[in-house]
Amino acid sequence: DTGVSQNPRHKITKRGQNVTFRCDPISEHNRLYWYRQTLGQGPEFLTYFQNEAQLEKSRLLSDRFSAERPKGSFSTLEIQRTEQGDSAMYLCASSLMVDVYGYTFGSGTRLTVV
Amino acid sequence: AQSVTQPDIHITVSEGASLELRCNYSYGATPYLFWYVQSPGQGLQLLLKYFSGDTLVQGIKGFEAEFKRSQSSFNLRKPSVHWSDAAEYFCAVGANQGGKLIFGQGTELSVKP
Lengths: 114, 113
Fold this sequence. Notes:
The complex is a heterodimer.
Chain A: E1 5-7, E2 10-13, E3 19-24, E4 31-37, E5 44-50, E6 53-57, E7 65-68, E8 75-79, E9 88-95, H1 98-101, E10 104-105, E11 109-113
Parallel strand pairs in A: 2-11
Antiparallel strand pairs in A: 1-3, 3-8, 4-5, 4-9, 5-6, 7-8, 9-10, 9-11
Chain B: E1 3-5, E2 10-14, E3 19-21, E4 24-26, E5 32-38, E6 44-50, E7 56-58, E8 64-68, E9 73-78, E10 87-94, E11 101-103, E12 107-112
Parallel strand pairs in B: 2-12
Antiparallel strand pairs in B: 1-4, 3-9, 5-6, 5-10, 7-8, 8-9, 10-11, 10-12
């Protein structure tokens, strides 16, 4: 069990560019979640998947954000036409039996939009 | 709508002193409650969780939390704080098993030698 892996760890991009982040969950976990965390705040829910199905999407998630989880394994989060307000830490988590194991978080991808 | 309030943004305690971090939640039914800890630039580590049963929950690193339905609270406690406990602590509530979590704003803990 290697935990939840997120790549890249850091990303600096120019405003208007597209970026894509990857999350590899714990292999047997069927649910995968994306959160966004800005400085001094708690994580905010963005979206989550059960296997390959996207079950819930936050209203915070604008049309510029899209997430996929093909084949129910890894997931990608894409932000199109980045804005400075998108600068944040993007956290991924996965779960199987939350009442036993809780949610396991990755170390996050820090995005800086300049 | 669910919400979580952590009234204390920053707390400083002396090493060896006891600690209590407050968490209040708003949710109509029985919530699923969590405490996570985050070190700078890192992800979140689960300290403990409450789903049902005994309202006093034991976690890792010597932490415990008590669910009090009448007060809508889930406060985190530790009898003796170590310098390595300095970090950001987040309380979170879930509406159903496996669904999204709603986090509080966090409490930053500093430990004085």
